[in-house]
Amino acid sequence: MEIGPVDNSKIVVPDIKEKTVKEKEGLEQQPRQDRVEISEEGRKRLAELADNFIKQVNENQKAHSDKIERIKAKVNSGFYDTPEVKEKIADKLSDDIINDLNQSE
């Protein structure tokens, strides 16, 4: 089989018009027409969800504050100064360091 020369005269090149700067600017200056409408039922549901979220945040803050106060009381009472607690803390810290080293490999 023999391959002959390519006839470039039959290649069709589409006529692509580059937009002018004015045309591009005109597109950007058109006002937006998108709208979203939320029904009254949807608004009520959204308000309920927001109220529940705020309630949960407040409850979590209270629980967090209570936990901090319990920890402070334990520190002040000397709970963490016992050899058993110090050993548990050291074990936990060493486990965390080993896990960090293993994850970075």
What labels describe this entry?
mainly alpha; 65% helix; 3 helices
Describe the structure.
By secondary structure, this protein is mainly alpha-helical. Helix content is 65%, strand content 0%. The chain has 3 helices and no strands. 0% of the residues are buried. The model has no long low-confidence stretch (mean pLDDT 81).
**What order do the SSEs take from the amino end to the carboxyl end, as H and E?**
HHH
- Give the total of beta strands: 0
Q: Count of DSSP helices?
A: 3
**What global shape is seen?**
flat
Low-pLDDT runs: none
Q: Structural class, from secondary structure content?
A: mainly alpha
Roughly what is the average pLDDT, rounded to an integer? 81
Q: Level of helix content?
A: 55-70%
Q: What gap, in angstroms, lies between the N and C termini?
A: 58 Å
Oligomer: single chain
Which percent range describes the beta-strand content?
under 5%
Radius of gyration: 35 Å
**Main pleated sheet:** none
